[in-house]
Design goal:
Elements lengths: L1 E6 L4 E4 L2 E2 L4 H11 L3 E5 H6 L10 E5 L10 E4 L2 H8 L7 E5 L1 H7 L5 E7 L7 E2 L9 E6 L3 E3 L2 E10 L6
Parallel strand pairs: 1-7, 1-8, 4-5, 4-7, 5-6
Antiparallel strand pairs: 2-3, 2-9, 8-12, 10-12, 11-12
């Protein structure tokens, strides 16, 4: 399984139910990585998407504890066990966890590759991604040159699990 995330220098990923910043090149990378694939998200992440609707051109899997929650066009799971069972139906390289914080933390043990847009700025955040630089199971395997969007500097970084995860 993969994860894809944009994080600031403190691994902040969101505040008040929104992304910290919208960088067009990051959005383009997200689209190119996930189109035609499976995206796994929590309910709040789904509701933060445009129109609160599942992403087009992808299989959308949503985790929520609300048994009556409906999201037309999405597969709904209500607990970790049913979510992992659903994810196993797809090739691991085609599955991308897209957030939020609690889902990232829940699925990190099952993840082999994390695609991070690292933003060289510390935003005010209330949601965070686990610090992969200090994580014993992950190593940085690729990083792009530095890019700039207005006054923000960022780069695309890939982390990989040192030994493959099992789902």
């Amino acid at each position: 399984m993969n994860m894809i995330v944009a994080a600031d220098k403190n691994w902040g990923i969101g505040k008040g139910g929104s992304l910290l910043v919208s960088i067009p090149a990051d959005m383009k990378l997200f689209r190119s990585q996930t189109e035609g694939k499976v995206v796994v998200m929590g309910r709040r992440t789904l509701e933060s998407l445009p129109g609160g609707l599942p992403l087009k051109g992808r299989t959308n899997i949503v985790l929520t504890s609300n048994p009556s929650y409906k999201a037309p066009g999405a597969v709904i799971c209500h607990d970790q066990e049913s979510l992992l069972k659903e994810i196993k139906k797809y090739p691991p390289e085609d599955v991308y966890c897209i957030g939020g914080e609690s889902l990232y933390r829940m699925l990190l043990p099952y993840t082999d590759t994390v695609h991070v847009t690292r933003i060289d700025f510390a935003f005010q955040a209330d949601r965070y991604f686990p610090d992969l630089d200090g994580h014993p199971d992950f190593i940085m395997t690729a990083e792009s040159e530095e890019h700039t969007y207005f006054d923000l500097e960022y780069q695309f970084v890939r982390y990989e699990r040192k030994t493959p995860a099992c789902v």
